Structures are given as structure tokens and as C-alpha cells.
Amino acid sequence: MAVKDTDQLHEAFGRPGIPPRWTSSSKEGIGTAYSASSRVWFTISYGILNEIYFPTIDHRQTRDMQFLITDGEGFFHEERRDLDHEIECIATDALGYRVTSSDRNHRYRLVKEIISDPHQSCVLINTRLEGDPGFLKKLRVYALLAPHLDIGGYGNSARRFKTAGKNSVKELCKQRRGSEAATCRMWT
Length: 188
What we know:
The protein is mainly β. The chain has two helices and 13 strands. The protein has helices spanning 79-82, 133-136, and strands at residues 29-32, 41-45, 48-53, 62-70, 76-78, 83-89, 97-103, 108-116, 123-131, 140-147, 156-163, 166-175, 182-186. The strands form four sheets. It has a four-stranded antiparallel β-sheet with strand order 6-7-8-9. A three-stranded antiparallel β-sheet has the order 1-2-3, with no helix packed on it. Strands 5-4-10 form a three-stranded antiparallel β-sheet.
């Protein structure tokens, strides 16, 4: 099915969903870039990326971001709940983390390196899936992001477009309650 760029907004299935909540206050890692030109901070707990703060440390923009893994037949894993995690610093003086999340049946591992870009306000996640190549071919991996733009979870929306044959998020918006005004962030 082809995805077209459209200015029409469609409501998500199940809208509005459950009331927005913040993630656990139990943190296993806090990171930022070494350079003052980057104005982004992040936290890690339960093996996943939690809040991302921007443009100041008191403005949370996400609740969490994790991966969903399935073979489409016998199992569906939510990274935070269904995998075992090990978290370590990338280097002794680095502000980044390596998170290894392992399937409890030892079939695969998800390895993520999470850092802040020192020259731009963004969090970078390098992710790889390890395991038996035959088993890995069966897997489908999805990213699940819970945005809470400008310190709230209600009224968030997104648009998508197709570029270079791939679907991308065009913008995330925070609709103000009782208002037509919106705050938007571009993502490419």
C-alpha cells in the first residue's frame, strides 16, 4: 500500500487512548552532550530510553521510546517488560550508554548505544539485533515512541511523508486544549 503526503489529518484508532502518564522515576542512566551547543538531555531505565528533555532540562518532550519485537507467529516482546537488560557506560569518561536487552529464551539480543550529538540537539541510538541469522530473518522490529511534547501527553499528533522510498515522520504537534494553536517540531 502506497503512502502519500497529505495535509489531511486522520484520527488514530482508539483515540484518545489512556490518560497520559509519566514514566517511572527510577533511573539507571542520565546523559547529555559534552558541548553547550547541544541542548538535549535524556534518561534511561528498564533498558529503554525514557524522557528526552529539550530545549532546557525542565522541558520533557517524550515519555519513552522502546522497541517491539515479534516473529509474527509465536511471540510479541515489549523491550521494557519482556527482555532482560544490562546497562553500561560506553567508556569511563563518556556520556553515553550501551544497553543490551536479551530474550529470556536466548534467541536474540538487542544492543543499543545511546548518546547525545555534541553539535546538534538530538539523541542518537545505534541499534543492532544479534542472534542466529536464520532466526533473525523471521523477526520484525518496530520503534514505539510516546511523545509528550511541551510537558503533556494530550493532543499530540504527527504527519508522515515518503522520501527516498521510505516513510518518515514529518512533524509532531502539540495541540493546546481549547485552542486551535499548536506547537510543532520538524523531524526528518
